[in-house]
């Protein structure tokens, strides 16, 4: 069968989600942000929440998320996305409100806002992209940086006696009574990408059903910050990041 | 003839040549162009073994820039 006979509407098995705009993303080649953006757009589309979703963008590489996903966005001050999300959700309870934050935003400057929003059980979704580095500002050490990991501010590797231990933020969320769903996923293989999509879908449904705060941590790569190719970065992530941050549900109080 | 036949359509101008689709492909269909580059200077991905494609959409799932569309037919 000829190629042109196969390329028809009825044979299509995968298409870019409509909510993803035509703007070319500013992310580095192979950045996990692109995959997560795509999954968010797909899930919003599948749940039919295009007109009801409000995203809260962070400070970090994903600061321009409003250019890429065609929903309503608010840009928050550094780390304050969960506080703004709480306000938006309380004022407009029929909307699906999610924050999209990196580890510098959520786990460093915004720890207070994140923990307290989750503790209040705000009906929002927190999407947490954990790549163990400050990507936008030039690869400095983040709280989630692994022990011995080289960054521009720890050129000889992170020392726990000097810089402290890697912060595991999802277990902190999991022990709060306000959260209903805390999960840790990744997007480095097609299977993991599908699982992350399912997790996002459940989290968005939890928020719409008013069950409490849902946290989806996505262990990601920052190949530019890690000074690797995208494929090497994925391998390094499996060998190092996933040992420290194992994948799976940390908490799920919602019965299926 | 292969029972399942797939075709991937790559938006070459969007592609940043990250090679994640090449790694994810279970049938060794995709490769980056070794000489050709797109307008932004990236070696974009293309089908080098189109007859082996099974249309599993693994490449499209891991593509960070959403440049891949996948079509599939099942020959009866």
Task: Give an account of the 3D structure.
The complex is a heterodimer of chains A (256) and B (76). The N and C termini of chain A lie far apart (43 Å). With 256 residues, chain A is α/β, with parallel strands linked by helices. In chain A, strand 6 (133-134) and strand 7 (140-141) form a beta hairpin. Chain A has one domain: Thiamin diphosphate (ThDP)-binding fold, Pyr/PP domains (Rossmann fold, 3-Layer(aba) Sandwich). In chain A, helix 2 crosses helix 8 (190-209) and helix 4 crosses helix 5. Chain A has 10 helices and 10 strands. A 7-stranded mixed sheet of chain A has the order 3-2-4-5-9-8-10, sandwiched between helices. In chain A, strands 6-7 form a two-stranded antiparallel ribbon. Chain B is α+β, with helices and mostly antiparallel strands. Chain B has one domain (4-74): 2-Layer Sandwich (Alpha-Beta Plaits). Helices cover 13% and strands 26% of the residues of chain B. Chain B contains 2 helices and 4 strands, in the order E-H-E-E-H-E. Chain B has helices at residues 20-24, 58-62, and strands spanning 4-10, 30-32, 45-47, 68-74. The N and C termini of chain B lie close together (10 Å). At the A-B interface, helix 1, strand 1, helix 2, helix 8 and helix 10 of A face strand 1, helix 1, helix 2 and strand 4 of B.
């Amino acid at each position: 069968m000829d190629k042109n006979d196969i390329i028809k509407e009825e044979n299509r098995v995968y298409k870019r989600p409509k909510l993803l705009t035509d703007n070319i993303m500013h992310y580095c080649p192979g950045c996990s942000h692109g995959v997560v953006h795509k999954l968010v757009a797909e899930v919003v589309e599948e749940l039919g929440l295009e007109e009801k979703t409000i995203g809260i963008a962070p400070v970090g590489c994903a600061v321009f998320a409003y250019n890429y996903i065609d929903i309503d966005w608010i840009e928050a001050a550094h780390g304050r996305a969960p506080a703004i999300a709480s306000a938006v959700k309380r004022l407009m309870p029929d909307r699906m409100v999610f924050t999209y934050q990196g580890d510098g935003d959520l786990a460093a400057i915004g720890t207070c806002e994140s923990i307290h929003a989750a503790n209040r059980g705000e009906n929002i979704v927190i999407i947490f992209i954990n790549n163990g580095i400050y990507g936008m500002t030039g690869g400095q050490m983040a709280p989630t940086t692994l022990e011995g990991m080289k960054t521009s501010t720890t050129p000889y590797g992170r020392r726990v006696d000097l810089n402290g231990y890697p912060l595991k933020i999802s277990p902190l969320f999991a022990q709060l009574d306000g959260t209903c769903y805390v999960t840790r996923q990744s997007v480095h293989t097609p299977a993991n990408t599908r699982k992350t999509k399912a997790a996002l879908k459940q989290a968005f449904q939890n928020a719409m059903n008013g069950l409490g705060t849902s946290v989806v941590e996505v262990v990601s790569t920052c190949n530019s910050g890690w000074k690797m190719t995208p494929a090497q970065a994925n391998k390094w992530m499996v060998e190092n990041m996933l040992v420290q941050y194992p994948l799976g549900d940390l908490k799920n109080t919602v019965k299926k | 003839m292969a029972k399942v036949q797939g075709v991937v359509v790559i938006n070459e101008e969007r592609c940043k040549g990250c090679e994640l689709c090449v790694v994810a492909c279970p049938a060794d269909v995709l490769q980056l162009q070794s000489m050709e580059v797109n307008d932004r200077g990236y070696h974009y991905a293309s089908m080098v073994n189109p007859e082996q494609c099974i249309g599993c959409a693994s490449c499209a799932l891991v593509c960070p820039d959403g440049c891949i569309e996948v079509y599939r037919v099942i020959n009866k």
